Amino acid sequence: MPKRSRRDQQHLRQTSARRRTYKAGGSTPTAMYKPGFPMNILGSPKVFGIVGVIVVLVFLVSAVYTSSADDRSDDDPDALPTATATASGSASASAAASATASPAPKQFTAAQQVIDAATRKYEATILTNKGEIKFRLLADQAPRTVNSFVFLARQGYFDGIAFHRVVKDFVVQGGDPTGTGSGGPGYSTEEDKNELTNKRGFVSMAKAGAVTVFGSQFFINLKDNPVLDQDAATQKRFYPFAEVIAGMDVVDAIAQVPVGTGNKPVQPVIIQSVLITESPK
């Protein structure tokens, strides 16, 4: 074997595994080593350009889809969580799971009858890490709703739950043990139709506007929200069951917390306890 040929063969044996994927051939420097797939496409500007366009299109489609998933009007009543007749209780609203959510939320098959709306009146004192809020529970106008709320409160259901949705100048929303906007108590309750309106400080249960049942999620109106009241065309309405009688400044403080995706507070606002008190009428 001629000396030059032997030297060439020895050079090929000593090249790295990556270099060995090239094959000898031709007599010009550019033809000596030709890359295999997929590196060979880089040598073709046309093929390389097509691949680049495909990558860009995939990226753009993905970005548009992602942004549309969170593109929701903050004051759209249908953006409030959906209460369903299934065991899940509610679905919709927020996206990310809360770091403060209970790992095993309490579940029930139904709310026991625990109030006497005819002879007793009820209040709820909600202690949060921002301060104390007191509700007057309107059992005369919303007996089923108040009964469910009182039942869950006395079971300690709300303890440790975060306000998972805060929309400035609209509502603050809590009552979901998962912190996702899709959690519920395991049962649903039929709404109480009444003439109360969603004025500032009034409290209603969260649900899909035209659905007539709810789970455990409630919201406090930060301002008068007539959009949440009766709509003759769509029959969408949220019926209040309580009114804030003390601590509206605390509610307003909660409304100022920074929020991230899905209007979820980046610094958790936690319901530490809910105390129910009752007295004769």
**Weakly predicted, low-confidence segments:** 7-25, 63-72, 81-102
Spatial sequence of strands, sheet with the most strands: 7-15-5-6-14-11-13-9-8
- Structural class comes to alpha+beta
Work out the helicity level. 10-25%
Average predicted confidence as pLDDT = 77
Total strands: 15
The major β-sheet equals:
9 strands, antiparallel
Can you offer a commentary on this structure?
With 281 residues, this protein is an alpha+beta fold. It has 2 domains: 3-69, no CATH class; 77-280, Cyclophilin-like (Cyclophilin). Helices cover 22% and strands 22% of the residues. The protein contains 5 helices and 15 strands. Strands 7-15-5-6-14-11-13-9-8 form a 9-stranded antiparallel beta sheet. The longest helix has 25 residues, at 45-69. It starts with a helix and ends with a strand.
List key phrases describing it.
15 strands; Cyclophilin; 281 residues; two-stranded antiparallel ribbon; alpha+beta; 2 domains; elongated; nine-stranded antiparallel β-sheet; 5 helices
